[in-house]
Amino acid sequence: MKQHRFCVLNELKPGKLLIQDPDLCHQINKVLRFKPGQGLVLFNQEGFEAEGVIDYLSTEKVEVSLDSPRQPQREPKGDTYLYCAVLKKENFALVVQKTTEIGIKNIIPLITERTVKQAVNLDRLRIIAKEASEQSGRVSLPVIHPVMDWSTALAHAAGHEVNYFFHTGYLSDAKNRYKSQTTGIFIGPEGGWSEKEVAEAKGKGLVFKSLSPLVLRAETAAILGAYVAVMPDSC
Q1: Band of the pLDDT at 201, cuts 50, 70, 90?
Q2: Would strands 39-43 and 49-57 be described as parallel, antiparallel, or unpaired?
Q3: Number of structural domains, the chain?
Q4: Residue percentage of the chain with pLDDT more than 90
Q5: Is 18 helix (H, G, I), strand (E, B) or coil?
Q6: Is residue 74 part of a domain?
Q7: How many whole angstroms separate alpha carbon 217 and alpha carbon 90?
Q8: 71 lies in some domain
C-alpha cells in the first residue's frame, strides 16, 4: 500500500520528531484521519526522506517515530527554469502541477504583451506545487518565483547555459541539444508571442524550438516543453 508523503521543514534524523505546522497537523488529523500506528513518509528541502510511524496526533501537533533518513536520487539533474506566460482560468495552476510532477526546479509566471490574465495567487501556486511534489515522490519543492515582465525575465535568464524559446514553426533537432546544467524554457500566452518579443528573443540568443508541427495550447506546450528539457534522454 502506497504511503502518504509530506514535506516538512524539520531536520530528519532517527528517533522522535515533532510536527507543529497547523496546516499539516490539520491535514493529517482531520482531512486524512490518520490514527496512531499508521505509517507515512516525510521529506524536506535538503533532499532527504524518511519513513515513520505516528505515535500521537492532534490538531496542534503530530509526534512521529522516524527511521534513518535516506537521500534518493530521483530528482532530475541540472537546474531548469520555466518562464511561462500567465494563462487564463485554471490553466496556469495546471502547468504548475504537471511541471512540478515532471521535475522542473523553478517556475516563473511571465507577463508578455499578449498576456490576458495579469494576476496570480503565488501562495496558492506554492500549495499546488507542494502537493504535486508530495504525490509524485519528489524530495524537493520547485521555487515559485514572483511574476516577471518580459524584459526582467530576459535579464534573469541571461546567465543560463541555454534558453529555449518555443515558437511555432521551429522544429526541434537532435535531442541531446536539450542537455545542459542550467536551462531556461520560454512559453508564450494563448495569443502567441508578439513580433517584438520574437525579435528580442533572437537578439538575446535564445534557441528557437517548436514542439510539434501542430498548434498546441499554451498549457500543453509548457508541460511538453518542461518534459523534454528535464528528461532529454527519454525523448
Answers
A1: very high
A2: antiparallel
A3: 2
A4: 71
A5: strand
A6: no
A7: 13
A8: no
